[in-house]
Amino acid sequence: MRRGAAYNPYRPTNYRKRDPTTVTALTLSTSSAAALRADAVVVGVAKGAKGPVVAAGAEAVDKAFGGKLAAVLETLGATGAEGEVTKLPAASGLKAPVVLAVGLGDVPAKDDGYDAETLRRAAGTASRALSGSKKGAFALPIEDVASAAAVAEGALLGAYTYDKSNGNGGNAKDGKSAKTVKNVKDADKKNNGPLAEVALVGGKPRDKAYKAAAERATALVEEINRARDLINTPSNLLNPADFAAEAVAAAKEHGLKTEVLDEKALKKGGYGGILGVGQGSEAPPRLVRIAYAHPKAEKTLALVGKGITYDSGGISLKPAGHNETMKCDMSGAAAVFATVVAAARLGLRVNLTGWLALAENMPSGSATRPGDVLSMYGGKTVEVLNTDAEGRLVLADAITRAGEEKPDAIVDVATLTGAMVLALGNRTFGIMTNDEAFRTSLHEIAEEAGEQSWPMPLPTHLRKGIDSPVADLANMGERMGGGLVAGIFLKEFVADGITWGHLDIAGPAFNEAGPFGYTPKGGTGAAVRTLVRLAERAADGDLG
């Protein structure tokens, strides 16, 4: 069998792709929360000084309870704490049989209202609680377009589920066996499936701004779910060639341009970093360029994603307990891919090019060894001191290649270092740049999008640690501050005069704990919202 052939003995023969953009339906409703037919009506409850307080949007529901909904909820133990869920039978006069009260946290200061992220998380919590339902009427506080968009995003994000029946989304296709169809149905019953429809009470279906917000939320979440699906897909079902094929298929659907460099093209082009990482695997590496262009664009962005479809650590093998979730090491590439497609669907006035640096890092007789020297794309040489510091190697090749097109800015995204998780925890990604204003801008954009991030430095004294006696630089430096060392390494491959940012999403990319808010267990789609918001700003001529 030739190396890299399509046959994979470990791939289930009944594996079928799911539709990566299947998402819960979203409707805007002018109906009263009391009059809307649904499986449940969702209301907000806040934590007041003297007990729970029913939030705005639930007036009609409170009226059906004779103005005593807060008292009933308190009797049931509700406090209004953020993330708290209380279900109760609906009062007469409500079309929905169930009221679901979701905690919003402390009552906001007078006239401040609830911030967007609070609304997102509450809506996501409610969607998860309504898993398996056909329709939920969301009567959360909606004061304007921004709050409507936040509720819509949170509700749709929270409704996500990854189908475990071979990734087929629970939708039987023609030509499949009765046994397979039965398995799909059984899986649907077991998993309950996501909430099928979100009705946004207080939405204005005839208002252009509200309609645009709903359309943006749908497109954005569909693409985040695309990223989540890719991240959750087992590595034996998603190697570099598989990932590249997904990108090509999406590009055809959305009118994007793609270029795929296989192992022969990578060798001819001198992409020593990508080839060096991938040479130990039977599944050869790929570099994918996927591009969206707008005829009236004034700014050009290049996004580079780390796409290690499985990371064993290579010869520097990871210890037991650190391998099981390494299918998620392509989360950066998934985020970049999803962002480019989202930009195309939203018609943003920006030129956006995504670079997916795809490889599988495996130990074998052909694998790169610690101490080997790789000749990178562009000519620099790197001494590989640790083969588990492989992400920076594939990114370096792609960053150099992206720089040749002279974009206004390059942003790379990667599950790059455990050191960043130690520094910032599991829910916050680090931001490093070669421009302080851009670092500040990226931090502001992430907060605006609802993603937790923190600006990190690139101390000049750490640069000396990656000097090498046998190459231009080494892929490892000082152990302390390892996440910053990785950023300093990548900076070496950024062309002069190009603004660059690095997002280390190692913490928030994959949630190994239980779901919370709108965040599921498993792949999260981290950084997509930040990158889409960055593209939107670039479309407005603002890159910080």
TrEMBL record:
Stated name of the protein: Probable cytosol aminopeptidase
Localization per record: Cytoplasm
Cross-referenced HAMAP family: Cytosol_peptidase_M17
InterPro entries named in the record: Leucine_aapep/pepB, Macro_dom-like, Peptidase_M17_C, Peptidase_M17_leu_NH2_pept, Peptidase_M17_N
Gene Ontology BP terms: proteolysis
EC number: 3.4.11.1, 3.4.11.10
Active site: 318, 392
Binding site for Mn(2+) 2: 306, 311, 329, 390
Keywords: Aminopeptidase, Cytoplasm, Hydrolase, Manganese, Metal-binding, Protease
Manner of cofactor binding, per the entry note: Binds 2 manganese ions per subunit.
PANTHER family given in the database record: CYTOSOL AMINOPEPTIDASE, LEUCINE AMINOPEPTIDASE-RELATED
Record-stated family: Belongs to the peptidase M17 family.
Cofactor(s) of this protein: Mn(2+)
Reaction(s) the record says it catalyses: Release of an N-terminal amino acid, Xaa-|-Yaa-, in which Xaa is preferably Leu, but may be other amino acids including Pro although not Arg or Lys, and Yaa may be Pro. Amino acid amides and methyl esters are also readily hydrolyzed, but rates on arylamides are exceedingly low; Release of an N-terminal amino acid, preferentially leucine, but not glutamic or aspartic acids
GO CC annotation, single: cytoplasm
Enzyme class: hydrolase
Residue stretches spanning the membrane: none
Residue span, Cytosol aminopeptidase domain: 386-393
Function: Presumably involved in the processing and regular turnover of intracellular proteins. Catalyzes the removal of unsubstituted N-terminal amino acids from various peptides.
